């Protein structure tokens, strides 16, 4: 017997309309990524001019060090080693630094916004209420299937398969960075969840995973699929990069949207997960390019390994786990419709939780939904 759907759900979106929106989003992503090579072509004369200035600076600094009878300073040695890299690589490092600063600032702004109960919390509640009122049966199933693509089972399966393939090809540096990307991102999520202890609007999890900030699905999907796309696109032509990046963007955005639709996260949780994942990719990707001499990996082989693993893991979940997951999510959604939504809360900040709100972990189903405290992999 199906769990009751949320009260007030309206059939505002048909499958055909959903596919149309998805296709338009994918087309927009393709067009956006095709703008990058055009921008690089415009900037190429500037890069050449910068490279000429860099070469002049290297020659002058080397001559000065050679003419000096004293030992060159450490600063001069570091500067010389830095200038020995070409201008394009230096610009890449500068861009990565800017991304890291922007992501760090955004993450701090999100934490401050929920801690101080500012307009961000109101936006979280507005988005949650709107999506909760828009739930439909077929869309529930579609969103649960999509959200599982960012879950622990599929992320671990893809992570192990890609690591094994890289080790088989003896691409040890790439394998090490891949492992650090996945394990490091997970450690960051666990640390932030433990430190902030913000409650979910609704939950099918217990323990540490009952906390929502940041979204583990959003972070995991961004790092897993984003860093995989980085490895596939490395030293590839743009005709390979554009479709890979567009497909990755669509998949990651869909997983983030599914977490909001299913009521497992607030909007700021998902945003924080994306920001954290992007910062992690920028940091490790830049380190991999600048500290090593990465060879071009066979894009089709790597992509095939990841795609086949994903399809096998997704097929297993669809055959054996999806009905149970649908039941769990629907029961959690029905419960959140009957109980006032828990306001985002941080330890020691009572103002961030409205009076009478009940955290997701403290809600009771009166014995009607024991599956809510399941042993499913946390996220």
Automatic annotation (TrEMBL):
Transmembrane segments: 20-43, 90-111, 141-168, 175-196, 216-235, 242-264, 270-290, 302-322
A Pfam family per the record: PAP2
InterPro entries referenced in this protein's UniProt entry, alphabetically: PAP2/HPO, PAP2/HPO_sf
Alphabetical keyword list: Membrane, Transmembrane, Transmembrane helix
Domain Phosphatidic acid phosphatase type 2/haloperoxidase: 173-285
Positions of region (Disordered): 350-379
PANTHER family for the chain: AT30094P (PTHR14969:SF13), SPHINGOSINE-1-PHOSPHATE PHOSPHOHYDROLASE (PTHR14969)
Protein name: Phosphatidic acid phosphatase type 2/haloperoxidase domain-containing protein
Organism: Cupriavidus yeoncheonensis
Biological classification of the source: Bacteria, Pseudomonadati, Pseudomonadota, Betaproteobacteria, Burkholderiales
């Amino acid at each position: 017997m199906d769990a009751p759907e949320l009260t007030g759900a309206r059939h505002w979106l048909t499958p055909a309309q959903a596919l149309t929106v998805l296709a338009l989003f994918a087309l927009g992503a393709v067009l956006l990524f095709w703008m990058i090579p055009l921008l690089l072509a415009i900037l190429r004369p500037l890069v050449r001019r910068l490279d000429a200035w860099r070469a002049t600076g290297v020659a002058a600094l080397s001559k000065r060090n050679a003419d000096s009878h004293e030992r060159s300073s450490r600063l001069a040695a570091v500067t010389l080693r830095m200038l020995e890299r070409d201008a394009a690589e230096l610009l890449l490092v500068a861009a990565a630094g800017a991304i890291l600063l922007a992501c760090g600032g955004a993450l701090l702004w999100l934490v401050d916004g929920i801690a101080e109960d500012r307009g961000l919390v109101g936006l979280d509640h507005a988005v949650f209420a709107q999506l909760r009122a828009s739930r439909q049966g077929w869309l529930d199933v579609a969103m649960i299937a999509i959200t599982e693509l960012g879950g622990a089972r599929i992320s671990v399966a893809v992570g192990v398969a890609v690591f094994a393939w890289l080790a088989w090809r003896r691409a040890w540096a790439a394998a090490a960075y891949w492992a650090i990307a996945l394990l490091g991102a997970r450690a960051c999520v666990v640390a932030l969840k433990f430190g902030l202890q913000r409650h979910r609007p609704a939950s099918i999890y217990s323990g540490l995973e009952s906390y929502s900030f940041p979204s583990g699905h959003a972070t995991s999907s961004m790092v897993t699929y984003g860093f995989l796309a980085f490895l596939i696109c490395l030293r590839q032509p743009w005709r390979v990069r554009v479709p890979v990046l567009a497909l990755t963007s669509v998949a990651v955005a869909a997983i983030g949207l599914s977490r909001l639709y299913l009521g497992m996260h607030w909007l700021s949780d998902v945003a924080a997960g994306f920001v954290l994942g992007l910062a992690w990719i920028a940091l490790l990707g830049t380190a991999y390019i600048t500290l090593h001499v990465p060879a071009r990996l066979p894009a089709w082989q790597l992509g095939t390994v990841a795609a086949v693993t994903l399809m096998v893991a997704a097929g297993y979940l669809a055959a054996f786990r999806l009905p149970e997951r649908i039941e769990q999510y629907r029961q959690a959604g029905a419960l959140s419709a009957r109980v006032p939504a828990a306001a985002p809360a941080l330890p020691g900040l009572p103002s961030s939780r409205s009076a009478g709100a009940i955290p997701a972990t403290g809600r009771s189903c009166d014995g009607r939904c024991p599956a809510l405290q399941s042993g499913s992999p946390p996220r």
